[in-house]
Design goal:
Radius of gyration: 26 Å
Distance between the termini: 34 Å
Number of helices: 11
Strand content: under 5%
Order of helices and strands: HHHHHHHHHHH
Number of domains: 2
CATH topology of the largest domain: Four Helix Bundle (Hemerythrin (Met), subunit A)
Number of strands: 0
CATH class of the largest domain: Mainly Alpha
CATH architecture of the largest domain: Up-down Bundle
Amino acid sequence: MTDINPHDSQAAWRTRLQEIIFEAETPAGKAFDIVLLGSIILSVLVVMLESVSSIRAQYGTALLILEWGFTLLFTLEYILRLLSVRRPRAYATSFFGLVDLLSILPTYISLLLPGTRYLLVIRILRLLRVFRVLKLAEYLNEAGVLGHALWVSRRKISVFLLTVVTLVVIIGTLMYVIEGEANGFTDIPTGIYWAVVTLTTVGYGDVAPQTPLGQTLATVVMLLGYGIIAVPTGIVTFELSRSSESPVSTEACPTCGREGHDTDAAYCKYCGSGL
């Protein structure tokens, strides 16, 4: 009688589970993803409907049961994802791993902090997997290019934001000194709030300068706002033009579960394991 190696059996079981959960090329994997996406959409709709007082009053119990049902389902799915990869920690700390965890935590936290379950709408981020299911790998590539451009631009954008913060503090203080409490600028934070609203060209109008000098400063800030809005756009656009595009596949790493590898990649670019 041939002895069955338990390690081989476990490896085969894990490989099969990984193919179903992470791969969309097989019929079982595609069916799993389609059911998952449908469940995500329904769960988000349940959370949204529960926030409507009239619907909650009539169907609150049923919606709560559905919400817990989806949470338990996604909890089981999250555990299976961790079991199917050889490095669970690598997957748990990846983008999708963190999204998967955050999509189930609010329901459990709501047992201690009522109302936090509405944060379950973060599950909608899991719909990003639709690109893999529909074999739209080029969209994954575009997302990678955009993410790289934002990351490369982080220092320039940080300097820009620091400059904007400095400007709004100075402008807000000037407006407080010019207008004063009599015209609605009761303190410097209110002046800073007005400066942010005006500089971003939002213009709520709840606080507005009344004096000629204040209106002149407001005009300058409005014009300055148009130029400031264009700066981060130009920074990111420049980095996007420098980014090189290369096709990516929808194959997931069997070790860490991450995706976005080049089509000709033999090893995972995140953990170095063979694909």
